[in-house]
UniProtKB/TrEMBL annotation:
Signal peptide: none annotated. GO terms for molecular function: methyltransferase activity. Gene3D superfamilies: Vaccinia Virus protein VP39. SUPFAM superfamilies: S-adenosyl-L-methionine-dependent methyltransferases. The lineage of its organism: Eukaryota, Fungi, Dikarya, Basidiomycota, Agaricomycotina. This is S-adenosyl-L-methionine-dependent methyltransferase.
Amino acid sequence: MSRPNEDDDCYLPIDGIEFFRQLNGRQFNTMNHTYLLPSDNEEIKSTYLGWLALCWYSPSPAVRSIAPHHTVYLPRTDLSLDLGTGKGDWAVQLSEEIPWVFVTSVDIVPIQQREVPERCRFEIWDINTPDMPYKDAYFDLIHARAIHTGIRDYPRFLHQIACILRPGGLVILIEPDLVQYIWCLPPTYSLEVN
């Protein structure tokens, strides 16, 4: 399989599998048509800027998001799952900063970093699959951020997470507020509700 862009440092080619399709000059995934955001360099850079903004807000967003709640309660090796990992920044940072954490990261396209810590691995599959390929009560921590647009059945997704999370484990779901504000319309517009 050829690389979509030779300048892209984070693309992982996997022979025999076509992960991308072109539409209106942009690159999209082929595995999940519910997820409508592109999977090209422009989108990777945009997502990375969001990650940098989060880093600016918190010197270590990966660790700060879990530290107050989770690291104190770890009786064994921490097995973490990052769903919708994208480029994998959160997973890599977590595995670098907490030495006992093993992170499994999942996304629908192979755009992850090539050089990652030994305790971090990437898997390519659609998280809308009927059953996640993990044993019940397997993970200590499950993280997902801004994946709502790609989830077909969010209640089923939450049920699957509950199944693979160990008792006492931690789930971190971070989704944007998608409320559309009517007050920002010019005063000449009105909203009629029947």
